[in-house]
Amino acid sequence: MLHFRGHLKGNVFVVSLAFADLVVAFYPYPLVLYAIFHDGWSLGDTQCKVSGFLMGLSVIGSIFNITGIAINRYCYICQNFNYDTLYSYRNTLLLVALIWLLTVLAIVPNFFVGSLQYDPRVYSCTFAQTVSATYTITVVVVHFFVPIAVVTFCYLRIWIMVIQVRRKVKSEVRPRIKPSDLRNFITMFVVFVLFAICWAPLNFIGLAVAVNPEEVAPHIPEWLFVVSYFMAYFNSCLNAIIYGLLNQNFRREYKRIVMSVWKPQLFFQETSRGGTEGIKIKPSPGLNNNELNKGETL
User: Fold this and answer.
1) pLDDT for the residue 279
2) What is the pLDDT of residue 8?
3) Residue 116 φ/ψ, nearest 5 degrees
4) What is the distance between the alpha carbons of residues 261 and 111, in angstroms, rounded to a whole number?
5) Which residues contact 117 (CB under 8 A, 6 or more apart)?
6) What region does 39 belong to: left with phi over 0, alpha with psi -120 to 50, or beta?
7) What three-state secondary structure class fits 126?
8) Is the full-model pTM beyond 0.70?
């Protein structure tokens, strides 16, 4: 039951991360395409501010949710005995709500600084790095380097735990790591690594420009900024691919969705079949929890 509850609570953060990735797809990206086709922004300042706000919501929401997932996995794998107390269902929902509250609060200062502006180089209303050097440095440090440091610490501790379990040098009080836990951890670790790779160039450019705007900004090649910008926002499209490549359940659901598009009747047949099979298939009364968990530990 602990194993099931651990996945359920961890999945709340994954759903929240998926929502952050989808935010840009529903509003900002269509406006970017519109600006590209019309070779400029013609939708007004209000639309520009809303688009920039939602882009920020997606970016900061993603890194804060990735941080929340890392802390959740750390508590579940490395601090197993405290997990149910820390991550009750109510506390989990409150933590997700806190992540989004902090995300909104992190974006609001942009309206006072005036840093949400249209950038013709990328046809987007986005964060302008040259408006305020102090604010840009704060954004890069608080929204990128601090979360990256926290996530790195959590995943390093988890990797140490995994290596210890593999070498069988763990203490008696430490729980065993199930293969499913390890697979989920690797999936989220890959999500984190790709996020860091995709966003690092744009953040380093922002930091360099903020340190000395007059000297550095004119010497940043336009192609470098454009590539780093679109590479950063392309990260929102990668997570679904990662889930599909590394998670069998996601692959199965992707296949079912694709098949249902071509043959909708298969979707309803599988749904009805799944409902009847769920009634027919029951575990053997003689199968206890120990037998159910056999082979599940590393």
Assistant:
1) 41
2) 56
3) -90, 100
4) 42
5) 48, 52, 125, 126, 128, 131
6) left
7) strand
8) yes
8 Å CB contact between 128 and 115: yes
Tell how far CA 2 is from the center of its chain. 24
N- to C-terminal Cα separation, the chain: 18
3 state SS of 116:
strand
Helix H or strand E encompassing 295: none
Question: Token pair for residue 61?
Answer: 């929401």
Domain 2-292: which topology?
Rhopdopsin 7-helix transmembrane proteins (1.20.1070)
Residues in the chain where the model's pLDDT stays below 70: 1-10, 80-81, 166-181, 244, 246-298
Look at residue 284 in the predicted model and tell me its pLDDT: 38
Reduce the DSSP state of residue 144 to 3 states and report it. helix
- Ordered by start, the domain boundaries in the chain are 2-292
**Of residues 148, 153, 158, the one with CA closest to residue 185:** 158
CB-based contacts of 281, cutoff 8 Å, min separation 6: none
Using one digit for the tens of pLDDT, what is the confidence trace for 232-253? 888 877 877 777 676 666 666 5
φ/ψ of 296, rounded to 5, equals -90, -10
Q: What is the CA angle 257-253-184, rounded to 5?
A: 150
263 three-state secondary structure: coil
Helix axes 2-26, 89-107, angle to 10 degrees: 30
Among 297, 81, 70, which Cα is nearest to 174's?
81
Where helices occur in the chain by DSSP H, the ranges are 2-26, 28-37, 44-78, 83-86, 89-107, 109-113, 133-140, 146-166, 179-211, 213-216, 222-246, 248-262, 264-280, 289-292
